[in-house]
Design a protein that fits this description.
By secondary structure, the chain is of the alpha+beta class. It has three helices and two strands.
């Protein structure tokens, strides 16, 4: 494995770890969400036994996107590693 291949492999692994780290820091959700259910119940509503929950627009990064991005990085890194290989001529 030459230096370009090692660099490509290292960058690919770092990018995949970064994507999965970001996914984990966002709550490690299985599926991507565009809306989140938020409890907006006041103290008076709680005393009366009323619940007030509303959906709020918020993007939550899911494993479906993180997996697709990681797979794309792995494929691109694999192609680049293949393209950067040394071609040695055999002399007979």
């Amino acid at each position: 494995m030459n230096s370009k291949q090692k660099l490509t492999l290292t960058i690919g692994i770092i990018l995949i770890i970064a994507v999965l780290g970001y996914w984990y820091s966002q709550g490690a959700e299985l599926f991507t969400k565009t809306q989140v259910l938020v409890d907006k119940t006041t103290e008076l509503d709680r005393m009366l036994g009323v619940e007030n929950k509303q959906y709020v627009d918020k993007f939550v990064f899911g494993l479906d996107y993180a997996g697709a991005i990681s797979l794309a990085i792995a494929v691109i890194s694999g192609i680049l590693i293949y393209l950067f290989k040394n071609k040695r001529k055999e002399t007979l």
